[in-house]
Amino acid sequence: MDLETRLNSVVGFLQLEMPQDALGELTGLAEEELYSSRVQELVLAAQMMDKQWNAAVVTAQRLCKHHPRKKAYFIHAAYCLHEIGDTTAAREVLLKGPKSLIKDALFHYNMGCYSAVLGDPNVAKSYLDRAFELDESLRQLAQTDKDLVGLVL
């Protein structure tokens, strides 16, 4: 089976929320194929969907290292770190990410979450206010976010 067919199968499994099958489809790839950014993005998506947070941290950090200007990788790396309980490291990943993150609503939203978890509700509220200015739809998400209980109006 050629690479394109395999990647299409991986995407299909992810759309069906079958992350283990998606990862299984990638076994046996040549190393140069497996470590391409395109394949690693799919690996990360499957790991996150399967809540394999430790493995996802490694994959996301590898993507950040090789693509230091791609803000989505930093958001994912930070989220995975937060999920394994290292919220301080998650915040640092975002703060050390590309400057373009400052214009991203998810950067502000996640910084708000991380600040709330780390015990700084005033900073959290400031980040959340900016996130909602950039993307009002995040307000609805925040109302059900366990990390933000009591901060969102």
TrEMBL record:
Entry-linked InterPro entries: TPR-like_helical_dom_sf
Protein name: Tetratricopeptide repeat-containing protein
Annotated source species: Rubritalea squalenifaciens DSM 18772
